[in-house]
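Design a sequence for this backbone.
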């Protein structure tokens, strides 16, 4: 049913709450050097305080960089928030929105995540919209319903907006647990996400859909060979340059 997948593969690292100036410098230099000649697009999403460091270390390289979150607000009395125009000012390419750790620890709703995606888009930053079901939802057979609900307010932003996003499917039960979805399980969900995207038209159906959840060098090739998996969002393995680059090479 699917034509050949000609979408440019994308592998993004999510450093989460890790790093310091010295370790980051080593990791960024290694990723920069190892990215030369790779066919996949490679990027890193770093903690806010290290965005400028990433920008400087990766300047002139093919490795892009971005943030792990963004405010829905542009400016104002919102202590602690970081706005999309600020991220754009620094030169960010990406902003993760709706990561499961934000959804669960900060009670971010589907509408709130969509508002963050809209704020990023308005500033010219590509939101990477994370969706995924919990173990309980997975075991209850509710995966596709949960994903459809999570995506609905994002799709309501309209075709022109959604065409400029990236979606990341990250089953919550697979994040940081060592339990990856099988390629077939992930492909089933990715195909359903793409079908939902296709309701907004052919261009939106070409939006890249990344898989995330305990991707390792040994599991990456099987996952990325699936017709609707366009790359990965990588957590733990993104902190080890060699592993991250092997995943990108897969
Ligand atoms: C993530 O945090 O987005 C993630 C996929 O983490 P891990 O690869 O460690 O499961």
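Sequence:
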């Amino acid at each position: 049913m699917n034509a050949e997948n000609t979408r440019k593969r994308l592998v993004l690292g999510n450093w989460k709450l890790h790093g310091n100036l010295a370790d980051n410098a080593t990791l960024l230099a290694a990723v920069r050097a190892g990215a030369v000649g790779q066919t996949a697009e490679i990027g890193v999403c770093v903690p806010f305080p290290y965005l400028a460091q990433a920008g400087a270390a990766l300047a002139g390289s093919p490795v892009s960089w971005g943030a792990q979150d963004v405010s829905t607000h542009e400016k104002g009395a919102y202590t602690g928030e970081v706005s999309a125009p600020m991220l754009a000012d620094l030169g960010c390419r990406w902003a993760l929105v709706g990561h499961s750790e934000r959804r669960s620890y900060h009670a971010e709703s589907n509408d709130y995540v969509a508002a963050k995606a809209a704020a990023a888009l308005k500033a010219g930053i590509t939101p990477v919209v994370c969706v995924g079901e919990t173990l309980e939802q997975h075991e209850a057979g509710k995966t596709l319903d949960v994903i459809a609900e999570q995506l609905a307010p994002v799709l309501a932003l309209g075709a022109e907006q959604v065409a400029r996003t990236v979606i990341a499917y990250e089953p919550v039960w697979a994040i940081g647990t060592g339990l990856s979805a099988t390629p077939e399980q992930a492909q089933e969900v990715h195909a359903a996400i793409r079908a939902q995207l296709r309701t907004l038209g052919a261009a939106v159906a070409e939006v890249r859909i990344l898989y995330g959840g305990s991707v390792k060098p040994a599991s990456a090739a099987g996952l990325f060979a699936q017709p609707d998996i366009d790359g990965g969002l990588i957590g733990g393995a993104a902190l080890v340059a060699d592993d991250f680059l092997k995943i990108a090479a897969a």
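The chain has a mean pLDDT of 96.
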